[in-house]
Protein 1
Amino acid sequence: MNRKYLPGLDGIRAIAVIAIIIFHLNPKWLPGGFLGVDTFFVISGYLIAMLLLNEYEQTGTINIVQFWIRRVKRLFPPALFMLLVVIQYIIFFDRDLLYQLKKDAIAALLYVSNWWYIFDGLSYFESFEPRPLQHLWSLAIEEQFYLCFPLLLMLLLKRWSKKQIFIILLIVSLISAIWMSVLYNPTAGNVSRVYFGTDTRLQTLLIGVMFAFIWPAFKLKQKAPILLVLIIDALGITGLCVLMYCIINASENSAPLFNGGFYVLGIFTLFVIMAAVHPNTLMRKVLGIKPLVVIGKYSYSLYLWHYPVIVLMQAHFVKGQIPIGVHIASVIVTVMLAVLSYKLIEQPYRTLGFKVFTKIRPIAYFITIVITLYLCISTPYLLSVVKAVQPMNDHVVTKTISNVPSIKRISPLETNESVEDIVKHYTPLLIGDSLLVDINDKLKEVLPNATIDGEVGRNIYKTLNVADKYTSFNHKDSIIILFVGTNGDFQDIQMNILLSKFDKAEVFLVTSRVPKEYEQHVNEEMYKAARKHKNVHIIDWYEASKAHSEYFAPDGIHLEYPGVERMVSLIYGSLVDYEKSKN
């Protein structure tokens, strides 16, 4: 096989990594940017299968150990370099993150990050906790694939024909897609199991593998009929248009993605690959332009570095209110570190492996040796002497039960009683998330008879279960205040179910300010509910907090003291306005 370079694939890689970086900078800019990872999966399956099939055809076997060595030399040194640098940065500049980072780093080194994040309950789309190694979940899946696939492929090639193997792979890939659909449960509010699982993501890797059986790039004819080339180009352009449409418009809430959509999108990605690797197509020339090829060449290093850079830089600003200069700086630092990693780590170890330690010329190799020795010696030492303290997580759950009887009278106690005094005698029920935890103590100062049930990380799906515990509050004299939009999106069906549990009470929905793609939608759902139900009212925290970065902690959600004061005054003021409207 002529191991000729395929620039078109680097062009596809460039598009994928750019989409991923933009998504992680701000999901609102490119809601479907996360689909770039699936593009990498398809390309990886295609290239690896093509190499292994060619080796088997030439030698009658697959040297699995050599394959693994090549993969380690290609992938492990840059990842380890990034990991050690991030650990040292956090030790010196952001030590509060060290406790969690150590656990994430162990999973990363073992290439089981995806399963670790499932076990740890991490949400890829809705996590507000800085986890600078979170992006390594996809590399874990690829490494698990590289570990097992060559063995299985060789066994299959020894026993069955390529046609039979193709059918087997097709069946397994469809099972993976169906399994994703079976496990997908949008009402659970967290799709981590289906998104991170090796079993559910195997489908796109196998799509690439199958394509290597029918479209081996280096066996394609150098001169093909013009009509065939035009058809291939048309398919490639169609695939690219569909891919770009999904990257621009899809989101984690797009249920069709998890019900066969990833599989279908993988097939359209094959159309792009088909055109990109054919020697005569226009798509090969377009995707092979120098800027895309250069970005594609650095795509692995860019992917490794972009996420920790973005997470650690944005951690010092209020999410959702990050200056554009910070985004620009994140990109610049990412590119600089990626180029440095590529030149000094990725390329030397890829070409020489440990033989790099025998080279002191040119100077770049000497620098590689110095960096390697420093990081590999100093990082374990620092980890041994620096204590990683588990962050305090006060009031993970706050639950304050009013001592006032459950049936309350909202009417004045005395004829000369002020509206403010009446409101202070309210006995409302508040159910919510970490915002409610933040304001609990301050809220009790103005509503001393309130029943408060708040929990960090609670979303509307968990709230549905919590609401069942408070059926005694569902009567005409009750005030219910709900915080349900911070920790994930929902649809009107969930909102209607929740409101039906308090259909006799007066319900106040607190709108959300959350630097996530679903912010606008959850607020729209709340306003829709208020228009539909006469007993539903809005407390507009989104509007009240606009342009007030001083209200928020760096995550752009939790509250500093000025935010606590403003939130409490907003709730109290809304209840005062409601009481006035009754008279």
Note: Confidence is low (pLDDT under 50) at residues 405-413.
Protein 2
Amino acid sequence: MNRFALLLALAFAVHGAVSSGFGPQLREAWSAAGDYRERRVLHAFGGMDLEAIRTRLDACLPTSQAVALGPEALVDGFASQRLTEALYPRLIDATSPFSLEWMDPARLDPSRMLPLAATRGEQRLALLGPCPSEPPGETLAADRTRLALPRLVLSVAAVMGLGLLPWALVARRSRRPLALASVWLLGAMVLALLVAGATVLQGPLSWTAVRVGGVLLGGAALVRTRAVWGPALPAALGRLRRAPEVLVLLALLGAFTVRLGLWPVTGWDGRSIWLFHARRIFLHGMFANADVLNLDSRWSHPQYPPLLSGWLAFFGADGPVFNERSAGLALGVLLAGLLALLWRVAREELGRWVGGALTVGLFFAVQRLCAWGYADGFLALLLVLQVLGLGSARFRWEGWLAAWAAALLKQEGALLAAVFALLHLAPRVLAASSWRQRVREVLPLGLFLPAQAYVRWFAARGLGSDYAQPNWAAFLAHPLERLAAIVQALPAAARDQPALLAGLVGAGVCLAVLPAWVRRAPGARVLTALAPGVGVAFVLGVFLVTPFEQKWHLMTALDRVLLHASLLFVLAALRALTPEPAAT
């Protein structure tokens, strides 16, 4: 074990523990006043009691009646997006004869306006348009925020069952079965594919059937593969007994999950994109055409891949009602599954202590984003796992699994994972002695087809990538100014995401040791060496030709987009400093 590698890994973990704010976040979740519902109103909805608003609207209008947002409500981006999310399945439609608007008390006319339970300074939110004389009819129940532990445990068992089925199929046909820890990720992948298939075919899923089917299929897979998992399970338990340091990671994940159970999802994208998508997928068992074609909610990017939103919808399905608290806890379940797999792969590839410290540091680097409901933290872990796995002789298929998951998590995940896959395959294809061998080498690229099919389905309905029309004109007219804006935004991004400083240290170490390390085995190490550079090039591409206002885009996204490259620099530095466990 290289002592400098251990020092670097420990510094990464300690820096994350000190700078990530995890301790203060835990204290706030534990000691803040109010129950979960009250905290949701205050911190997620900015003080607007949207459940009360929804109840008053349902007493006036049928749920099928859309409402518009008035000019003042539309200008308030936070309120308009939270209203669109929380009032669903009532749609926001600019053509509706009924509208929601902020009104001064003096202008409120009870004969044609319905005051609602929300204030903004002296103004009140009101429904403009008199309530119909006939009763609105049946309405949907409000969201649940109870702690539904039995259903949560059943959902976890079902996901494990869905993951055990492909794990068993691979185990019966492979010389080396996938790591048992990959079951979580496999289950998430099966769930994402079910949601994608239901959306493309417009055939709704039954969440009860998925739960029951997952448990039954998992049980059948366990019976059929006793000869494989029988020896693997005691071996895994033995590794845990010989590694008491795993208790540190388990304690962190346990504390993180407790925080999720006490504190609602508050991230802007976490609510406006992923929880909003989850709510829609939950209600229809798919992403329904009516939601895809609704012009007034296209800002939520319905075309984003379904892994995270489908995962939240499945765990949030509490009978006929969406349980946001269960959906929030599902973020902890997904993070635990990814870190368990990373813990196994990193310790085998980098050594017990270096790999363990790296995994703990990765937890601190992404935990805040994950708790806010952003997909970027999960994507960063998947890209690290892909690069680490594909550069390994033992965990190559775990690397491909991570690439597949990244493609079904975010559109930029599909792009980066595909580039990393090509970097990994290029030396192998060039070294192949026959066309048959070359074809065999590129077959894993077929894993990216489901994500592409899903994206194409949305594109056919007018929902393409934000970068379908990049702002080349602004870049070509002022290239140096746009590059300078990115550089000037870096200090603020580093304050928001302290892991970027660790990436800067990793980049310095890479400059010192990576060239000599790559020269000793260029074919096997090209991916690890080039992946951080690809991440940096991606950041430059995103912000140099962004179709959005550049300053706003940098302020809201630079820290998240740069996180991937930062963590890959740390990984590359540790990889170059650590002796190879086996030839690749």
Note: The radius of gyration is 25 Å.
Protein 3
Amino acid sequence: MVSLPSLLPCILLAFFLWALPGWLLARRLGQGRTAALALAPALGWATQTPAALAVAHLFGLSPVVVIGSAALVSLCALALPRTRDEAPFPLSALVFAGLLALVPMLGVLPKVTADGAIALASPIYDHAKIILIDEIAQNRAIPPANPVFGAGGAAGTVAYYYLWHFGAAELALLSGAQGWAADAAATWFTGFAALALVAGLAFRLNPSLSAPFLALLAASAGSLRPVLAALFGGARVDHVLDPASGLAGLLYQTSWSPHHVSSATACVIAVLLMARLRAGRCAGEATVLAGLIGLAAAAAFGSSLWVGGVTFALAGTAAALVLGLSPPPVGRLRFLAALAGAALVALALVAPLLMAQIHAAAARGSGMPVQMVPFPVLGPGWPQALRAVLDPLSYGLVLLPVEFPGVLFAGVVGFALVFTGRVAGRAEQQTARALAALVIVALAVSAALQSTVGENNDLGWRAVLPAVLVLAAFAGAALAAGLSRAVETTRARTGLALLAAGLALIAIGLPDTLALARRNIAGEQSADGRTFAGDPALWQAVRRHVGPQERIASNPARLEKLTPWPINLSWALLSRRRSCFGGEEMALAFAPLSASARTDAAALFGRVFAGMGTAEDVATLRRTFGCGGVVVTPQDSAWTADPFVSSALYRLAEEKDGRWRIYVARDH
């Protein structure tokens, strides 16, 4: 499992691969020595990972490709003009960001209880894709094989947006760590990069020592729901408002889906680079910036179809139009030509994944992946007909203030202060207009569009993330302005009012943040926790008999109580081996199977491991699903009614009394 000796090297490598190239680029993009440190993690990740993936497509994945791609990105800085130092950024704000980023990472780590069992926090459910990190790092094939399903045992392809997992696999490859440790390190780095970006942008708008800290406080605030439940009762709140969903604050979303957060940071980076491109005067600089924008856009799409694909396609276009139409007209054609080049770069980089997603969507036969449906806001206490009318209005007037109290009010005030020239200079107003377009369109996408792929509305939940990042930065700038005015005799009343209101809204969102931290630290004990604690030995035994390119059959329903929702977690986190069917939940994200095919496969594996499988079922596992190995444990009913004992297709390779039986195909 994850240990500190395996986790720390991954974090250090993340700084080497991403923060160092990002700092070199940020220094040439108008950032001072210390201010560049805040932009560096997000900028470096958004450029190195898509560059490394593109090179790996050509030459395969190797340490040389990973390190060489970081060096290549670093060399791009030499083509940008030098800049002078500006006001020093408070480095202690980055320490604060790093501490806040521990909250999501702790949601990924296992917790050992007093009786030796393992407790896991709920977000680990969405980190079951760790199996993909192991697949990439171990077999080094790009595009990676599908670890969840491959017809007839073939390698298959992955249609899931996997760039974030590829980045984590880079860490695993260089450090030798397992995927779980690399995932935890990448989750921490994602939270740190997002928060550092927020702090750096706040400082850019208002270069005061307080702006980055206030922005981080605003970004860390959670929902008002716990406070409302304490005041009015949880049942009454859920009667008036639709129950809480994945539409939540930055720390919550990083805990569950760091790849969507990374995509959002890449979107913001792309818009900032666009603003720099519009203000530039040098053709050589424009060429380099176009390449960087293309890399950032590819990073956004490669990590999240919903954030970097649907949302940024609309919001990024809006930001580009705002910049293109803004004065002066000089340089407008060069700007538009460079953006066209950036679009071509991005399209070339994402083409393999885009084609895989198109083919997978056709195979699934699930219809249009996006529909225009208002985000549900009001609860069952309202008549359905009235909800249909009021939900679109309630999204902005009710839901956003409830879910994002720390950033919404102060962020809007921050935009107003920048546009009126009370905060930041004229040069930042053009950037602010582009960021405002990003915020408005991202929120509109979340409010009006719904994804139909999967069980959840991932588009509605994740589209808000670029807006949350930007609003948090502007909130920090606004609150810092209020603080500075509060100490001025002539404007003390206005400053105190702004500061007090903003801090109060942050404060009432903090109970939700503390509850998240408590859940991530403690985890949830389950009846399967003690068995899971012994599973590393099980999967080590499996790896002795089943090769990294073979597929293993195991019970998808085994240890299903580890999380509140059933998923094949022991295999996903510990096995480092491909499955011939990783379970219906994993297949929904990874396998190009129709709903009926997934259901049939789940029923087949359920029968076999329930001890009701026939010889024909066992033959189907081998010939149709390509299962090169099988593991049976006492948690499976098949332990006492084992259909593989008498099978002519499999032989017993190892048996551990009372713990496991491992079979391998006779024709291997």
Note: The chain has a mean pLDDT of 93.
Protein 4
Amino acid sequence: MVGDPAAVVFTRKQQGAFERLYDWLNSVAARNGDARPGPVVASSDATIVTRAKSVDVDDVEVVGESYYRQAFADLFIRAGKPLGGVTWYQAVLVAEPDNPHDENAVAVSVDGHKVGHIPADLAPTIQRDVRAANRRGEQVCVAARIWAACDDATWSARVTLDPTEEPEPEWRYVDEPHWPGRISPDGAERLTDSGSLRQYERYRAALIVHGRAVDDYRPDVAQARADGDPARALAILGECIDAAERAAAIVFAKPDQWPTEQAATIYRGLKDYDAEVAVLERYFAASPDHAGTKGLRTRLTRARELAGKESGTAPASVEESVAASETVVTLAGPRPVIDVALPFAAELSYEIEHIDAIKSVVDEAGGSVGAALYASAFLRERHHRPHGFGYVDVYINRKLVGSVAAIEADAVREIVRRDEYTGHDCCVRCRVFLASIERKSARITLGRYEDVVEREDETESAARTRQQAVELEAMRMERLAAGGQEAADQRRRLVRDKDYIEWVETIKDLKREKRYADALQLALECVDAAERDAVFHQCAPPPAYTEHAAMLYRKLGNANGEVRILERYERACPDDQGSSSIAERLVKARARL
């Protein structure tokens, strides 16, 4: 370096000062968007690396983004995403040994903007590696996924360095959609929270018929039927079906089902089977996936039989949905299989719709009703909109036996979508328990089933109820121990030393045991507690306990008692806060007097 006018020579005693100056010059260069390492190293020897392998920042979540809101505004506006979204940048790691808050600090710079820091627990190691790379003439750059959103003129953001998951395509937020639902069909745009709120307001507005919500017409339909006036009931239902379809189209969802069910029931009673078929096929056609519940599919099949119609009168997608209810669905398109160990237990839903397939699986394995069967299952995500979410279907012996329950679906979907599993069927261990064919009762649990199965014949609902009971008891004890107003609120809700919501399953058990008088007494005590709490909070009490009591009065043959408890609920509700289901039940109860 002799004779080089750009060379700067330091003695060993000045080594620390040299390193600090070098790091400072690099930080200035990064802020100014200059990728050169600095003047203290001969430019001919300088190199820039996309990633220094010695610096481990896989999946590191940057901290302190809230201090750099303007940086995110600048970055996203420049990227054509003025309301935010997801974008990718190369981030530069900049050592900050002179940071007044932490001498080990490492800043994260994106396109000349500081956007945060490496977490404090990781900073010492990463700063050491960054400074070592800088001394070699290297600048440490890593891929950064940046999510940001501007809501009410305030930016929030999250920066993840070098994510190991499958790269997420870039997308942007918009306030006004040009498509139904929250995500555009190509996945390139999504609604902001404020845009979603406005969309929801449009959805609610679409459900208004002559100034009333569709659901509020339940008692009107019940009254028309009680009066023997099916034409009036069908006229109301026709407008409700129109509104339900308009609203569903806004949010890309299935329409509200009850008007269609009521209309189909009335047409069946009138023996107008062609009209019944037409109203049911209309519902399937209006649904995004053209698939309703198994009950609706079964009803449509029967209505066609009564009308003397052959399959094929509806769109092909509707025909496929109905056919699925009539046969065991098998896994199509065999793929390579890869074994996957789920690190948790995942319950299935919709087993009731596949009870024949489950029975076939048990029979083929030589099992029996009432005994657990241990098998392997294949997971496959159902077809869905790009970047959307499809059901994760579960197959045993290539037969569809259900779908992963919503509670665990996101976690299972994340596993199925991993890069290494692309194009494969994921094979997991599972437990099958067929409790009853007549009641169509079965429970299938994937993964670590031993963590959630307390006894062999325990149902999924019983397992979830057991866990919920533990949580509710802990919550009650915590509130009572807190003292003051919180304890007073809890005491107001007590029934036999428990919160009234803790008695739901006991009431159901008493009903199953046909101990109707005991169940009614407990339900009435819960009604008292619910009303006490509702009066204090000036809101409507939850209707479930009133409905239990009404059903029990009917079981006991006390029609007057049924009417009185339903009327009591309506009196307990503030104006415009009643329950349409209670009002509908009251109309029917009065008609039976």
Note: The chain is about 45% helix and 20% strand.
